[in-house]
């Protein structure tokens, strides 16, 4: 992190061993992009994006990439870049904060222009739907990110009605502006030379992770920016220009935005362990015990939080030896997983690996591993690589690229630091790396910008890992259905059913269930489980059948089995709670219902069920609170009004009971018991005429002679009373 640039030659030299090696690797990378474009369904998903463009476009990207390797072309491009930098240096504000802000605003316009038109990558459509309904199923690993989107959405709804999609797009693009702002100052920390700063800036801007800022809908955008802020303030701390509190703050913020950022802890521990001695940083015991205590406490709190969300910790990781049913052969050391890791890094930082490999090969004798900045970045990078190796991409790494969007930051920063320290005179390589990065990542951006190309891309991705393609194909089916393309929707649905026959059987069984043919549905669902013992939908529907048949133990067992396959399924918890309550196990039932609420169940029925359980347990205060919550969520949910009225009646709060029963009468006049309860309420209040009127309406509608006899007796008692 030199503060003064060294003298360098004015024209790039292409003859050094380092430059020749860079030219070789970058040339091979450009050719790999071109060749892989002819194999869109192969596992070269990190570099095959030219496949979605005509041949002339592929050549348009490939030929300039190869021409930049020619020394004469490279030299002229370098001079052109220097002239452009000189021009901007003259016209941009002298204050760098203003310059960074201006660049951030300009970048946001470009990000908006290149924004993603579809949301097939990751869980885009799911998170947009969850935000629109103001409820989230998966709040276990990214609490602050979810709350940021949710409360921004609620705040803006006070003034107008934003679309949930626009919230994600807006925050994504705004985060992109913050990214540019931070990146501008990271380049200043690393170098004062304007061309070197352009080099660093380009390597991060022309990265696959920039897709996060193109209107991307998922929960990894804000954490990526927060991690960069953590690294920036850590660099400043190592320079003695910032307090340790800032890296601590951004580390905590990153983890709050997504728990995966816990891989920053080792590097933060390193910062804690450093102390200044004679102007230099050295390792010492100062503060380390305090940090260890904080680390242990944070780990315990995170583990408890995940446990309370029923997040099975082992389910987060790639299996070590034995693969899962939905991803056969996919283990940590399997060739498929290792190839996915390579593709991931080629997508995110096309030239980062080439740069680091060449530097280590050529300058291995000159690398000073004792430099505190380098040690810090090695710790960050190793932690990120370890996370990349063990974290399980649930949809296959091909669709979970965003889960690992930050993993290439560490070794890319190591590469640019070593380049500036050891090879800053190699301008030829810098120009090659800049344009290789640009030409490698641009097709990826334009594929996601085009709906047609994005659909073709998704279809090919799904064919790579058919076992993991169920959710992706369902997203595609939903897209066609919403955009009134029935033929394509039918074709996609047929493909899903052929790949996942258990899903087809469950759908058939649901039809029989709707017709009341539970025995037939039961046989079909058992066949579905025989085909795929891990299919959650079969567990749920078979459990519902047993619940309807009164086989509560079997229903509970099936709901629990379904939760083992799908730990975040709020419906399973809700059904499990009802089964427990029906069996008389009120406490377990209440706990299951409350778990459903934690996982995003916010409909009136679940709160009504919670109210019923609390009322039976004798906790009237909690029961009333739950009923009122149900009514607040859905004022038209008459069952909550009825149950609340009954509870008020038990507590002799007849005025409150009257309000609730009268509301039920408006919402559900065909519900016979409400006439009885209103009659009782009026009689308690001494309103005999109204009470008799309600009882007579009950008699008029009721066909149960036993109940009618009781009501006639109540009418006689009221009429016999003196006025």
Question: What's this, in brief?
Answer:
With about 725 residues, the protein is mainly alpha-helical. About 70% of the residues lie in helices and about 0% in strands.
Question: Helices, strands, pairings?
Answer:
Elements: H1 17-36, H2 55-67, H3 71-91, H4 96-113, H5 124-132, H6 143-156, H7 164-190, H8 194-205, H9 221-238, H10 245-257, H11 265-273, E1 274-277, E2 280-283, H12 288-308, H13 335-348, H14 352-363, H15 372-390, H16 409-422, H17 427-449, H18 451-464, H19 470-482, H20 486-499, H21 501-514, H22 518-531, H23 536-548, H24 552-565, H25 570-583, H26 586-598, H27 604-617, H28 620-633, H29 638-650, H30 654-667, H31 673-684, H32 688-701, H33 705-720
Antiparallel strand pairs: 1-2
Helix pairs in contact: 1-2, 1-14, 1-17, 2-17, 3-17, 4-7, 7-8, 7-9, 8-16, 8-17, 9-10, 11-12, 11-15, 14-16, 15-16, 17-18, 19-20, 20-21, 21-22, 21-23, 22-23, 23-24, 23-25, 24-25, 25-26, 26-27, 27-28, 27-29, 28-29, 29-30, 30-31, 31-32, 32-33
Describe this structure in words.
The protein is an all-alpha fold. It is built from 33 helices and 2 strands. The chain has helices at 17-36, 55-67, 71-91, 96-113, 124-132, 143-156, 164-190, 194-205, 221-238, 245-257, 265-273, 288-308, 335-348, 352-363, 372-390, 409-422, 427-449, 451-464, 470-482, 486-499, 501-514, 518-531, 536-548, 552-565, 570-583, 586-598, 604-617, 620-633, 638-650, 654-667, 673-684, 688-701, 705-720, and strands spanning 274-277, 280-283. The protein has a two-stranded antiparallel ribbon with strand order 1-2. The longest helix is centred in the first third of the chain and has 27 residues, at 164-190. It is elongated.
């Amino acid at each position: 992190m030199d503060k003064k640039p060294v003298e360098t030659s004015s024209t790039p030299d292409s003859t050094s061993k380092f430059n020749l090696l860079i030219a070789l690797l970058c040339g091979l990378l450009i050719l790999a992009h071109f060749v892989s474009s002819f194999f869109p369904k192969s596992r070269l998903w990190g570099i095959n994006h030219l496949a979605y463009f005509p041949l002339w476009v592929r050549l348009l990207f490939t030929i300039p990439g190869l021409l930049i390797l020619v020394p004469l072309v490279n030299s002229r491009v370098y001079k052109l870049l220097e002239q452009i930098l000189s021009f901007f240096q003259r016209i941009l504000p002298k204050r760098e904060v203003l310059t960074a802000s201006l660049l951030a605003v300009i970048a946001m316009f470009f990000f908006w222009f290149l924004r993603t038109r579809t949301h097939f990558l990751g869980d885009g459509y799911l998170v947009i739907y969850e935000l629109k309904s103001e409820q989230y199923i998966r709040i276990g690993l990214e609490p602050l990110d979810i709350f940021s989107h949710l409360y921004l959405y609620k705040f803006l709804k006070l003034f107008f009605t934003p679309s949930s999609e626009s919230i994600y797009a807006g925050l994504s693009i705004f985060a992109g502006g913050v990214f540019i702002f931070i990146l501008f100052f990271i380049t200043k920390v690393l170098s004062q030379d304007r061309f070197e700063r352009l080099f660093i800036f380009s390597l991060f801007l022309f990265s696959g992770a920039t897709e996060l800022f193109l209107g991307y809908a998922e929960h990894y955008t804000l954490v990526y920016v927060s991690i960069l802020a953590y690294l920036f303030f850590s660099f400043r701390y190592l320079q003695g220009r910032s307090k340790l509190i800032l890296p601590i703050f951004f580390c905590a913020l990153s983890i709050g935005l997504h728990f995966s950022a816990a891989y920053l802890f080792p590097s933060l521990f390193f910062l804690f362990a450093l102390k200044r001695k004679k102007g230099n940083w050295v390792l010492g015991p100062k503060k380390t015990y305090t940090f260890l205590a904080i680390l242990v406490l944070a780990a315990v709190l995170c583990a408890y939080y995940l446990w309370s969300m029923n997040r099975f910790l082992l389910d987060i990781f790639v299996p070590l030896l034995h693969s899962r049913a939905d991803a056969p052969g996919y283990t940590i050391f399997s060739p498929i997983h290792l190839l996915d890791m390579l593709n991931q890094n080629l997508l995110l930082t096309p030239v980062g690996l080439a740069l680091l490999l060449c530097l280590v090969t050529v300058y291995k004798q000159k690398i000073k591993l004792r430099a505190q900045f380098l040690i810090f970045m090695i710790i960050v990078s190793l932690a990120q690589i370890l996370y990349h190796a063990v974290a399980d991409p649930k949809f296959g790494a091909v669709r979970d690229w965003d889960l690992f969007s930050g993993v290439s930051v560490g070794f890319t920063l190591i590469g640019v630091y070593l380049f500036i320290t050891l090879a800053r005179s190699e301008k030829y390589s810098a120009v090659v790396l800049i344009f290789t990065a640009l030409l490698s990542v641009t097709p990826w951006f334009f594929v996601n910008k085009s709906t047609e190309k994005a659909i073709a891309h998704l279809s090919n991705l799904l064919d790579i890992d058919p076992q993991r393609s169920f959710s992706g194909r369902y997203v595609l089916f939903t897209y066609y259905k919403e955009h009134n393309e029935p033929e394509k929707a039918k074709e996609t649905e047929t493909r899903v059913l052929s790949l996942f026959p258990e899903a087809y059987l469950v759908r058939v069984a649901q039809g029989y269930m709707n017709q009341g043919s539970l025995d037939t549905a039961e046989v079909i669902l058992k066949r579905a489980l025989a085909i795929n013992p891990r299919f959650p939908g079969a567990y749920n529907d078979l459990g519902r059948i047993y619940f309807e048949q009164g086989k509560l133990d079997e229903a509970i067992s099936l709901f629990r089995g379904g939760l083992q396959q799908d730990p975040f399924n709020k419906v399973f918890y809700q059904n499990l709670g009802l089964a427990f309550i029906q069996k008389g196990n009120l406490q377990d039932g209440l706990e299951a219902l409350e778990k459903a609420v934690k996982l995003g169940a916010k409909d009136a029925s679940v709160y009504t069920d919670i109210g019923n359980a609390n009322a039976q347990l004798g906790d009237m205060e909690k029961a009333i609170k739950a009923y009122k919550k149900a009514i607040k969520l859905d004022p038209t949910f008459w069952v909550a009004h009825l149950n609340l009225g009954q509870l008020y009646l038990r507590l002799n709060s007849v005025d409150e009971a009257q309000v609730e029963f009268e509301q039920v009468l408006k919402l559900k006049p065909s519900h016979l018991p409400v006439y009885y309860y209103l009659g009782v309420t009026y009689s308690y209040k001494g309103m005999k005429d109204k009470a008799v009127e309600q009882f007579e309406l009950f008699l008029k509608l009721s066909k149960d002679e036993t109940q009618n006899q009781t009501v006639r007796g109540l009418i006689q008692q009221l009429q016999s009373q003196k006025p």
